[in-house]
Design goal:
The chain contains 14 helices and 13 strands. By secondary structure, the protein is α/β, with parallel strands linked by helices. The chain has a seven-stranded parallel sheet, with helices on both faces. The relative contact order is 0.12.
């Protein structure tokens, strides 16, 4: 099968990029021919990503507010050139809103769209005022609001990564037939369990962590909906615990650093930035708890990794998080935005831990990448059938 895989974030940090790269690896190993269309590689990640398929990096504008818009505008041209060069595609798989300006007329054929979460859900959950600042318009809850409906309604089949996202889609777009929507959770990379003491010791030294410190680990991009300001308030309540908060992930952390200094906890916050896969595995291994104060999640791949490893999680019980973290089994879920309850849950983990088989849930086949790939290919086949039926219906109307 020849597949056009559209993903702005393919060579970027974050969950969508991780999901897409792993899925492409699985599809390629099955012998499918994939052409990825994406934004240019993030310089911090480009040397770490093995490219197992053909990747077309679509140039984007560097001007404020225009990068995503320029990708949408230039993508149809890049896809048309590839069709001339390599022939038609059997399936077009768009991730999130990558195909916003790519109409069925410009690129006919079966169309799959993966929905991670809706931009409007971020707004509703976080109470964000999208029009309050130009910065907000660059984010997933800015431009996404204007075009996500177009992509969703145009698709022959939708893939959603959680039941929570399925409910979001069906509530926001009641005209989308339930039969078009497939819930396919991502898998867990089992390599996450392979860490080494040498790297762990290196990180402790690099981050100034002693054996007596208790590490709260956050993994994710620094962005509004991830709730990091709330996490600083939690840390403030844990001063007696000798806790340190390690923030792993990209984004501008200057505001977090300034706030931590003003709160008197600047020496307890470590902004680690991007780390290698080996270092991420070691970071999990030296931590006592994963803290995830996000105000909305369509899934949460770092949550899945933590549960798989048996690392307790404390998070707000929002979005799809309860589908991954079982309250009292492999972590604790608290009501958003109760900082005191969050701090009590962290303190409980640090003092007594958790009882029971914390990693039982994520070792079920439901969270296996092979199964996720098989289900994705089945969705491709359904999209082909749906598209053929639509074409037959059109021919019938034309002939009558």
């Amino acid at each position: 099968m020849r597949i056009a895989f559209l993903c702005y974030e393919f060579l970027q940090p974050g969950g969508i990029g991780v999901y897409s790269r792993r899925l492409i690896s699985e599809l390629t190993s099955d012998g499918h021919k994939i052409v990825v269309f994406c934004a240019p590689a993030n310089p911090d990640l480009s040397h770490r990503i093995p490219l197992l398929s053909e990747v077309k990096q679509v140039p984007v504008s560097g001007l404020p507010l225009t990068s995503m818009l320029s990708f949408w505008t230039r993508l149809p041209i890049a896809v048309a050139r590839e069709r001339v060069r390599g022939g038609p595609f059997d399936v077009v798989h768009s991730n999130a809103i990558a195909d916003a300006f790519l109409s069925k007329r410009r690129l006919p054929g079966p169309r799959i769209v993966t929905v991670f979460h809706l931009g409007r859900s971020v707004v509703r959950s976080a109470g964000l005022r999208v029009m309050a600042s130009p910065r907000a318009l660059r984010t997933e809850y800015g431009l996404a609001l204007a075009v996500e409906g177009r992509s969703i309604r145009r698709a022959d089949q939708l893939i959603v990564i959680s039941d929570s996202t399925r409910r979001e889609v069906q509530a926001a777009f009641p005209d989308v037939a339930p039969g078009k929507v497939s819930v396919i959770p991502p898998g867990v990379d089992t390599q996450i369990a392979t860490s080494d003491e040498k790297t762990a010791s290196y990180l402790r030294s690099k981050w100034g962590i002693s054996r007596g410190n208790k590490i709260l680990l956050f993994v994710g991009r620094i962005k509004d909906r991830k709730g990091l300001p709330l996490l600083l308030k939690v840390l403030k309540q844990l001063e007696e615990e000798s806790a340190k908060l390690v923030i792993v992930g990209g984004g501008d952390g200057s505001r977090i650093a300034r706030t931590a200094q003003k709160m008197g906890i600047g020496n307890q916050v470590i902004l680690a930035g991007y780390v290698s896969d080996q270092e991420l595995r070691a970071a999990y291994s030296i931590s006592q708890v994963l803290v995830h104060p996000s105000v909305m999640e369509g899934y949460g791949m770092t949550l899945a990794e933590s549960v798989y490893l048996g690392l307790p999680v404390v998070a707000f019980g929002v979005g799809a998080i309860p589908e991954v973290v079982q309250d009292g089994v492999n972590g604790f879920l608290v009501e958003y935005p109760n900082v005191s309850a969050f701090a009590r849950a962290v303190r409980r983990v640090l003092s007594v831990g958790l009882e029971g088989p914390q990693n039982a849930t994520l070792k079920k086949p439901r969270f296996d990448w092979r199964l996720a790939t098989v289900r994705t290919l089945a969705a491709y086949e359904r999209s082909i059938d749906t598209n053929h039926q639509a074409m037959a219906d059109e021919d019938s109307k034309s002939g009558s």
